[in-house]
Structures are given as structure tokens and as C-alpha cells.
């Protein structure tokens, strides 16, 4: 039976970003996880299909080869770099050839487990102050009954195909090269009595629950590495790592720019004209901001040390407050009458004297028409 297209398996387009691939894989893994579908062979097959697709598409080199050659890229020794069964690594091939000539050779040993990525969404307040979160991740864990060996009785035997070397010689035209032994998958050992719990794999699908401490000051894109919390390695090999990537949700008031914060502060026309003190929010509580008389809309005030102290800085940034003068709405009859009387005082040159920006604008318009006419 032919394999489905990897992009189709994950339900993404061929130009999907790394982040889109991660999200699609997480959705697929959670949907078909064996623990959520006990005894469902179809779900188990779909889970394995999703994992295989993600392992190829999440690796830049493997993805390029797949885009160019499809599934054939992983057959007949084509391509490079641990991409899948029969996928010959060209660096390993030349290493084997010249290593054998000069008495060297590739050091054998079990591969460590795969690294795992997790995206954690935080509120701005959580990212600034730091927080501890509980996360649940689908993963491959060491099989406890066999302690990761894959053997029911704990006994392993030397592979009869490669005689324990983990490598077999292959003839490719004029070249003699070495490849991982297909019988023992390069381990050099075989199991006479596979563990019934893990079917001899040494690993089982599981969901890991972890407490993750997020340090204060993290920002979008920051990654936290948890050593040894990735997938268990095959045949008892060391586990991979877990990388937690931070995503900060948009905030209704503040916008972060590095260590600095920005916000808008609405004030009334009377406050802008006469001056006033207003209370503005900060991440540490409200503070007083003095608005001087004749303040224009758009003016920015800086509050020192009211920004963010990031994980990479020694001192907090600043908070920049942009004043926005609001036009009053829902006026009462009395308010409308007062405004009409106020507006009536702006006549002729007197109006220009009280409206500096308007005067500049009108002068610019006059100059524009003078140039057009001349």
C-alpha cells in the first residue's frame, strides 16, 4: 500500500511554516494518541503516520529531499542524514570508506532520544513576573517492565547478520559502502524474547506531565531547555531534551518593545488645555502622570523604570504614555451650549493664535496654492 503524502497526513500546505507544522503535529498526536484510543489499531497507525510525517518535514534537509523526490527520497540509499529506513548518510558513507582504509571507523553507540518542542502561551503579566505552569506532552517514554531494553527476560544476543558491528557492507555500483544493519537497526544486538508491553521497542507512547518554571522577563520566541525531558532513546539510550517556546498573548493596554512598554492615555479636551493629573496603569500598579497645560494630542511622556526587566537585562525599561485627546460625545444641552459659546470666541487672527497646528496647516495650504498659481 502506497504511503500518503506527508503534507496531507498533517493537513498543511506545502509551504507551511515550522510553527504550522508543530501545531498540526500536536493536533494529530493528541487526536490519535494510543492512550486516548485504547485498542484502536487504526488510531495507532494514524499516530505513527503523523509522527513519521513530522520527523521528515520538521527537518530542513529531509524536507527539501522529500519536496524534490517524494517518498522515493528515503529509498534505495538516496539522500542523506538519518531521514528514514534505508536513507544513506553521505557523510557516514565517506567516513566508513576512508575510516576502513586508514584503520579508523565510526564509533558505535545508541542514538539519544528525539528532542521535543512545546509552545507555551502566556499573558504579558505572566511573562514579565515569571510563572510556573503544568504542561502535558505526548512522548515516547522508557518501557518500565523491560527498563528500555526491549527484552522480556533482559537478555540480548549478538546480531547474526552484522556480527555485532551494527553495519553491513553494500555495493553501489563501483562503490563499496556501509549502512546500518537492517536486522538489528544498527544496534548490533537482537532480542530473542521481545517484551510484550512494548513489542521489543523498549519505548511506549505516553503523556508526560511536567512543572515548568518560566523565568521573569521572557519574551516572544524565547526558548527554555529542559535537559532529558524529551523522548526516551532507543535501547536504553539517553533521552532527548524538551524545548519550551514562549508566545505572549496581545495585551489590551500595553504593547511591548524589548524592555519598554507603550500605551495610550485618553484625556478630555479640558484636561489637555488646562492641565491635570491623571492615573495611568503600570504592571506594578497605578501611578500619577502630570499633564501640563496646552498638551497636544499625540504627545508622549516617559515613565522611567516602569517597563520590563528582561531575562537578559540588568535594569527595567521605560513606559511610554501617548496622550490621546478625545472628542466628547453624548453631550447634554448645557454642555453643547457651553461649547458653542466657547467656539464663538475663536474668530479671525484670534483663532490662529490659539491653534498652533491649525495655523501651520493653513500656512502650508496657502503656500501650496501660491506655488500652483505661479
Automatic annotation (TrEMBL):
Zn(2+) 2 binds at residues 159, 162, 181, 184. The keyword Metal-binding applies. Pfam families: DnaJ, DnaJ_C, DnaJ_CXXCXGXG. Binds 2 Zn(2+) ions per monomer. GO terms for biological process: DNA replication; protein refolding; response to heat. Keywords: Chaperone, Cytoplasm, DNA replication, Metal-binding, Repeat, Stress response, Zinc, Zinc-finger. Zn(2+) 1 binds at residues 143, 146, 195, 198. Gene3D superfamilies: DnaJ domain (1.10.287.110), Heat shock protein DnaJ, cysteine-rich domain (2.10.230.10), Urease metallochaperone UreE, N-terminal domain (2.60.260.20). A zinc finger (CR-type) spans 130-207. It is found in: Cytoplasm. Its cofactor is Zn(2+). Residues 5-70 form the J domain. InterPro entries: DnaJ, DnaJ_C, DnaJ_domain, HSP40/DnaJ_pept-bd, HSP_DnaJ_Cys-rich_dom, HSP_DnaJ_Cys-rich_dom_sf, J_dom_sf. The keyword tRNA processing does not apply. Its main location: cytoplasm. PROSITE patterns: DNAJ_2, ZF_CR. CXXCXGXG motif repeats lie at residues 143-150, 159-166, 181-188, 195-202. Residues 130-207 form the CR-type domain. Belongs to the DnaJ family. The J domain is necessary and sufficient to stimulate DnaK ATPase activity. Zinc center 1 plays an important role in the autonomous, DnaK-independent chaperone activity of DnaJ. Zinc center 2 is essential for interaction with DnaK and for DnaJ activity. Homodimer. Participates actively in the response to hyperosmotic and heat shock by preventing the aggregation of stress-denatured proteins and by disaggregating proteins, also in an autonomous, DnaK-independent fashion. Unfolded proteins bind initially to DnaJ; upon interaction with the DnaJ-bound protein, DnaK hydrolyzes its bound ATP, resulting in the formation of a stable complex. GrpE releases ADP from DnaK; ATP binding to DnaK triggers the release of the substrate protein, thus completing the reaction cycle. This is Chaperone protein DnaJ.
Amino acid at each position: 500500500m502506497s504511503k500518503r503524502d506527508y503534507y496531507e497526513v498533517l493537513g498543511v500546505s506545502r509551504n507551511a511554516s515550522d510553527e504550522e507544522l508543530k501545531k498540526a503535529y500536536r493536533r494529530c498526536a493528541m487526536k490519535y494518541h494510543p492512550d486516548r484510543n485504547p485498542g484502536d489499531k487504526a488510531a495507532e497507525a494514524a499516530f505513527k503516520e503523523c509522527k513519521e510525517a513530522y520527523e521528515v518535514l520538521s527537518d530542513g534537509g529531509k524536507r527539501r529531499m522529500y519536496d524534490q523526490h517524494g517518498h522515493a527520497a528515503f529509498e534505495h540509499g538516496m539522500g542523506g542524514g538519518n531521514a528514514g529506513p534505508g536513507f544513506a548518510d553521505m557523510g557516514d558513507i565517506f567516513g566508513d570508506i576512508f575510516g576502513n582504509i586508514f584503520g579508523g571507523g565510526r564509533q558505535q553507540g545508541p542514538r539519544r532520544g528525539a528532542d521535543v518542542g512545546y509552545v507555551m502561551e502566556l499573558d504579558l503579566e505572566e511573562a514579565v513576573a515569571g510563572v510556573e505552569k503544568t504542561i502535558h506532552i505526548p512522548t515516547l517514554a522508557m518501557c518500565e517492565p523491560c527498563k528500555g531494553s526491549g527484552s522480556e527476560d533482559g537478555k540480548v544476543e549478538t546480531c547474526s547478520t552484522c556480527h555485532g558491528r551494527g553495519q553491513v557492507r553494500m555495493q553501489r555500483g563501483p562503490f563499496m559502502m556501509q549502512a546500518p544493519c537492517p536486522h538489528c537497526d544498527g544496534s548490533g544486538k537482537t532480542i530473542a524474547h521481545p517484551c510484550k508491553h512494548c513489542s521489543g521497542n523498549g519505548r511506549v507512547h505516553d503523556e508526560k506531565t511536567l512543572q515548568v518554571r518560566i523565568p521573569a522577563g521572557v519574551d516572544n520566541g524565547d526558548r527554555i531547555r529542559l535537559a532529558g525531558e524529551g523522548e526516551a532513546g532507543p535501547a536504553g539510550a539517553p533521552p532527548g531534551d524538551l524545548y519550551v517556546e514562549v508566545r505572549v498573548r496581545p495585551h489590551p493596554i500595553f504593547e511591548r518593545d524589548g524592555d519598554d512598554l507603550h500605551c495610550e492615555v485618553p484625556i478630555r479636551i479640558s484636561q489637555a488645555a488646562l492641565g491635570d493629573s491623571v492615573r495611568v496603569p503600570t504592571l506594578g500598579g497605578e501611578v500619577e502622570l502630570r499633564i501640563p497645560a496646552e498638551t497636544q494630542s499625540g504627545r508622549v511622556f516617559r515613565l522611567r523604570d516602569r517597563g520590563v526587566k528582561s531575562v537578559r537585562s540588568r535594569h527595567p525599561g521605560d513606559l511610554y504614555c501617548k496622550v490621546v485627546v478625545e472628542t466628547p460625545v453624548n453631550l447634554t444641552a448645557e454642555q453643547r451650549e457651553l461649547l458653542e459659546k466657547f467656539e464663538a470666541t475663536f474668530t479671525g487672527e484670534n483663532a490662529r493664535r490659539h491653534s498652533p497646528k491649525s495655523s501651520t496647516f493653513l500656512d502650508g495650504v496657502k503656500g501650496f496654492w501660491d506655488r500652483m498659481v505661479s
